């Protein structure tokens, strides 16, 4: 594989070719940053959601789930701050008429300098034995100079973003001599704010109809149901409410496939705690969420925390779990200590008390909240891109294999009669009937057995079960494992248990 960009392209085409992800409305030339999940994609997505739901709701006695509506009272978005402050800074190139996010232009510029440093490091790595990367980064003049550039730009940029200084952002783009990738010119408009929420009208006639929003996060549906759940579920602080559902954002720069979409799904959990105990719980959820990721067996070096230094005004701690995507480390999940900001704002805007009476302290208070928030689609991309592998085999051929964690794989086992005769298809169907109640299986009798194995490798099926002559004699089948291609015989009576034990 030549480079990560090519690898990423191969991953995207593999996702389409094998029924995982299709561009939305493809026969009409697609709809930007919107995707459909195909027959295998929907299974993988459902398995990811189930894995999360189980970890959150089933394993934590003090967390319950809800499913709130996408449409909500418009004042909710006033209270949450989304109407006034859920903006991206926009800039247009006057020659190409292309629109960009000002912050992304600057971040891309920083990334280019970082790429130069990485290239320098890689070159040196090849040249010297016992290469000390840290020392090289501290002493090589070109690396030091470029690192200083990055630090200066980053500090300026963070300050401008924090102060919402739009004129300053434009000036920085000009100072950095950033040109439009299409026209190549630096003929920029002013930077202005663009709200990311989609709006629509509720009511049968436009006149008098209310403007409502497609929710940009599922979290607010949890906050506004805090008291309903606490009272009806007799929940005691600390407790959590979990939700999986669609969210919508009118992203200006929607790219990197399903990493940044306009319609996507979130898995969010708000954990309500006593004031003063939020940082303890923040640490708990940080560790707990990282464990959840790593339990999938994906190499730990693919994950890292990125603690936020500059916090949103309502947060007193925040971190991202970043994942090493083919295009670099990027945010996969956010964990935020949101204080009592959201509930207090909803108290203020609704005029309703959103308090909890704590029988242990005899106090009534607005609970503090620790949130965990992860995109289903982003998790899908993390798992899928990590699983994609082009492998050179001993015979010189290449096999494309999706090394998905067995627990998440869409099809767990493929049942394959060696030939389409001698009673093998009938026996294979019997085995399908044995396995079907336990997990999703696929029957396939078309093509030579080797080609069928490769097809299942490409789909990511962890086990192939082959029915052959011996099966008809002693009721055993060959189990072939996807990752090792190792084969062994198992009695049909023990097949279900053996496979379940390996998932
Ligand atoms: N309630 C907090 C919240 O929504 P966020 O950092 O804006 O926080 C949380 O989003 C997660 O949702 C992100 O870490 C990411 O996984 C996912 N996400 C956000 N915007 C997305 C988009 N446009 N496309 C796909 N996933 C997205």
Can you describe what's shown?
The protein has helices at 4-17, 41-58, 75-79, 82-85, 102-127, 133-139, 141-162, 166-175, 219-223, 226-232, 278-294, 341-350, 376-387, 424-435, 449-459, 469-474, 492-501; strands at 21-23, 35-37, 63-66, 87-92, 99-101, 192-195, 199-202, 210-213, 239-248, 263-273, 303-307, 317-325, 328-337, 356-358, 363-365, 368-375, 388-392, 398-402, 413-417, 441-443, 463-467, 476-481, 487-491. The protein is an alpha+beta fold and 503 residues long. It folds into 3 domains: 1-86 and 196-401, BirA Bifunctional Protein, domain 2; 88-194, Herpes Virus-1; 411-501, Anticodon-binding domain (Rossmann fold). It has a 7-stranded mixed β-sheet. Strands 20-19-21-22-23 form a 5-stranded mixed β-sheet, with helices on both faces. The chain is globular, with a radius of gyration of 26 Å. The protein starts with a helix and ends with a helix. The model has no long low-confidence stretch (mean pLDDT 95). The protein binds glycyl-adenosine-5'-phosphate (GAP). Residues 217, 219, 249, 251, 260-261, 264, 266, 268, 331-334, 371, 373-375, 377-378 line the site of glycyl-adenosine-5'-phosphate.
Reading off the top of the CATH hierarchy, the class of the largest domain is best stated as: Alpha Beta
Bound molecules: glycyl-adenosine-5'-phosphate
**Distinct helical segment count:** 17
Query: Looking at the chains present, what oligomeric state does this protein adopt?
Result: single chain
Structurally, the number of domains stands at 3
CATH fold-type name of the largest domain: BirA Bifunctional Protein, domain 2
| Major pleated sheet | 7 strands, mixed
The CATH H-level superfamily of the largest domain is Bira Bifunctional Protein, Domain 2
Tally of DSSP β-strands: 23
Helix content estimate = 25-40%
Distance between the termini: 30 Å
- The Rg value, from CA coordinates, equals 26 Å
Coarse shape:
globular
Strand order of the largest sheet: 3-9-10-16-13-12-11
- Per CATH, the architecture of the largest domain is 2-Layer Sandwich
Task: Quote the beta fraction.
Answer: 15-25%
The SS-based structural class is: alpha+beta
Mean pLDDT: 95
